[in-house]
Write a sequence for this structure.
């Protein structure tokens, strides 16, 4: 299926950092269509192995993170509303006037309200997350019987096709990355490769790249391609951003293995696959930062999907960029063999 | 009552067609006509006083003002919407309901000043995923309307979440009231363009020239954590709301007392709106021709004028029951 169809399936499941069970189950099932072995590690990363024919050829880890942003219930107030704290980095301005799900003893619909315009004073301030409340439409007693401190809250927005191949969805960051991993696995299932392909959906990226660190430590891959998102251009956003639909973005800089990255760039040029270039002077803010220095070190490359409105209720991307990324990763995997491009 | 169907229709101020067509199809009356501005007027003849009952068909929404060269849409609001809460919301454009996202600049890219200030309207655009103006104009044009996207959902303890509870609740109640018989000469007016200045009611009241009017509305309810009681405006679950004073009209005192009496006699929960903010079609009707006695009954709606307004279903039922009792007894009111 198309990368966008994988994205639609993945965006329909929930999994906030540290509480990824819903999405984990879904990914485990999808990985098992392409991998002989699929397992979950201590922190909850899902690892799928497509075995290669040559045990001495370097393995290739391809990964995206499965966790999304969300909230945790911090209090139930006198009138039954819920106070909450963020898990991951939110802009509070987007949180007013939205629907959420509180995962209590039951799935509960909640509304984060907005002050009516008639009652706003002239200088409206930006609310802090600690000023906001979730309205469950119930009394304190009822709320307390169904909700506990520590319960997780997710945002109710879903996959929405826009014009052409553009889509809006809740967590293209980074279910888009996982969709690319799946599409690459699908393409590679037609090949018998020398190298093991290790597909990984990591956990807890949004709170500090934690899953990637532990996954890379026990997998010890020969090399890795991390797949995440970067900012997409839109009105008012042009610096440090890339147009959607002109291909995924490859990053150069100290975090990424120079020759491996150059190899991917060459392959894109050779095969006419759209690719954009980004320069990063240090921490790319992605799983690549942890993977590169894991264990004995891992040559790492980073591909990102240009994404508008990152970390908001509706993120937007061009799904052709997902297809191009998957194609490019598979092309790299097929030619990897002894891993000449991983040397210095 | 048909509130679930009504809130699913998209009809902002000036574009009330979907709601007008829906209602016209379902109601019966002695006379049904649409006037020059688009009000749907339904007369049930009677020998008593000329009574106008009014609810507005329009919801707050948006109108597309420009298709930019890069295929994004600039827009204005139709009616009072706090634009600082619009970022990262989904809208539906036109009768084909083309989905668009009001995008939000990623938090990572915002300067400290931007992060600490409300979003300015000039920085808001609708993204329909078009690559350029030509592509966008295949589906959308300048002047198209748009509304919030929101489904009617029952939740919590007898609560409803939906868009456009203001004032599809009024329309649903009026459609139900029309099934009954009354002594008065009844004019049920489904008005247009209330949200942009009580415009439809102005025209309808002039043409009908009623003796008495009852406006049925959705009203503010800020009954949320942290609000002091006098700032809550109304209380969710507190019953039908009657307005004493708002920015557009001060209720006729005798009429106000009459409604209070009817509520008590019929054991219907009644609360009085606690602030003077906002306005309704009563403002236009009261001041039409040589003046009309007006009153407003309303359903308290939390988060009014957003895509996720919330009401207590029992309040909605209370407004219906009280409106019916008032209209059935109005010939004995002494008004």
């Amino acid at each position: 299926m198309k990368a966008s169809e994988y994205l639609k399936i993945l965006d329909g499941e929930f999994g906030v950092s540290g509480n990824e069970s819903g999405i984990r189950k879904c990914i485990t099932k999808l990985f098992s269509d392409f991998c002989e072995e699929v397992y979950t590690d201590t922190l909850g990363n899902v690892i799928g192995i497509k075995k290669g024919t040559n045990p001495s050829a370097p393995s290739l880890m391809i990964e995206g993170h499965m966790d999304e942003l969300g909230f945790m219930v911090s209090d139930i107030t006198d009138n039954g509303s819920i106070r909450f704290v963020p898990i991951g980095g939110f802009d509070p301005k987007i949180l007013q006037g939205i629907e959420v799900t509180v995962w209590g003893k039951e799935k509960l619909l909640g509304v984060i309200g907005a002050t009516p315009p008639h009652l706003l004073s002239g200088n409206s301030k930006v609310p802090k997350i600690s000023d906001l409340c979730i309205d469950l439409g119930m009394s304190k007693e009822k709320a307390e019987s169904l909700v506990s401190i520590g319960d997780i809250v997710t945002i109710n927005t879903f996959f929405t096709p826009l014009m052409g191949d553009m889509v809006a969805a809740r967590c293209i960051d980074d279910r888009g990355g996982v969709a690319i991993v799946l599409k690459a696995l699908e393409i590679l299932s037609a090949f018998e490769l020398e190298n093991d392909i290790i597909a990984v959906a990591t956990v807890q990226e949004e709170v500090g790249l934690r899953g990637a660190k532990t996954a890379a430590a026990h997998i010890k891959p020969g090399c890795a391609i991390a797949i995440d998102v970067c900012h997409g251009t839109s009105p008012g956003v042009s610096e440090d951003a890339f147009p959607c639909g002109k291909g995924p973005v490859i990053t150069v800089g100290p975090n990424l293995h120079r020759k491996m990255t150059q190899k991917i760039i060459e392959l894109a040029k050779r095969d006419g696959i759209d690719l954009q270039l980004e320069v990063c002077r240090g921490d790319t803010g992605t799983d690549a930062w942890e993977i590169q220095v894991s264990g004995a070190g891992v040559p790492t490359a980073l591909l990102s999907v240009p994404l508008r409105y990152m970390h908001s209720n509706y993120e937007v991307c061009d799904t052709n960029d997902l297809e191009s990324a998957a194609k490019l990763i598979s092309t790299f995997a097929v030619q990897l063999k002894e891993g000449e491009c991983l040397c210095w | 009552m048909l509130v679930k169907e009504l809130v699913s229709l998209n009809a902002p101020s000036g574009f009330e067609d979907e709601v007008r067509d829906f209602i016209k199809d379902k109601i019966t009356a002695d006379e049904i006509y649409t006037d020059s501005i688009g009000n749907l007027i339904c007369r049930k003849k009677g020998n008593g006083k000329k009574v106008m009952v009014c609810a507005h068909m329009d919801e707050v929404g948006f109108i597309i003002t420009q298709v930019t060269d890069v295929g994004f849409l600039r827009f204005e609001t139709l009616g009072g919407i706090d634009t600082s809460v619009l970022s990262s919301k989904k809208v539906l454009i036109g009768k084909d309901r083309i989905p668009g996202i009001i995008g939000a600049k990623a938090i990572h890219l915002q300067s400290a000043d931007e992060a600490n200030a409300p979003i300015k309207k000039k920085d808001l655009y609708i993204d329909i995923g078009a690559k350029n103006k030509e592509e966008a104009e295949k589906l959308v044009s300048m002047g198209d309307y748009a509304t919030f996207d929101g489904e009617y959902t029952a939740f919590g303890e007898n609560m409803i979440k939906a868009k456009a509870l203001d004032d599809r609740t009024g329309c649903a109640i009026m459609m139900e009231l029309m099934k009954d018989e009354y002594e008065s000469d009844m004019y049920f007016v489904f008005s247009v363009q209330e949200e942009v200045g009580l415009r439809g009611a102005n025209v309808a009241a002039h043409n009908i020239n009623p003796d008495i009017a009852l406006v049925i509305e959705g009203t503010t309810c800020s009954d949320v954590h942290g609000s002091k009681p006098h700032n809550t405006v109304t209380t969710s679950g507190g019953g039908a709301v009657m307005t004493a004073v708002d920015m557009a009209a001060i209720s006729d005192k005798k009429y106000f007392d009459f409604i209070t009496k009817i509520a008590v006699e019929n054991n219907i929960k009644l609360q009085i709106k606690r602030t003077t903010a906002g306005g309704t079609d009563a403002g236009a009707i009261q001041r039409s021709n040589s003046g009309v006695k007006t009153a407003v009954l309303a359903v308290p709606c939390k988060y009014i004028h957003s895509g996720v307004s919330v009401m207590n279903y029992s309040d909605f039922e209370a407004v219906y029951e009280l409106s019916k009792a008032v209209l059935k007894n109005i010939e004995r009111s002494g008004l």
The helical segments of chain A are 3-11, 21-31, 140-146, 172-188, 210-219, 258-271, 288-292, 319-336. The longest helix of chain A spans residues 319-336. The radius of gyration of chain A is 21 Å. Chain A touches chain B through 61 residues (CB under 8 Å).
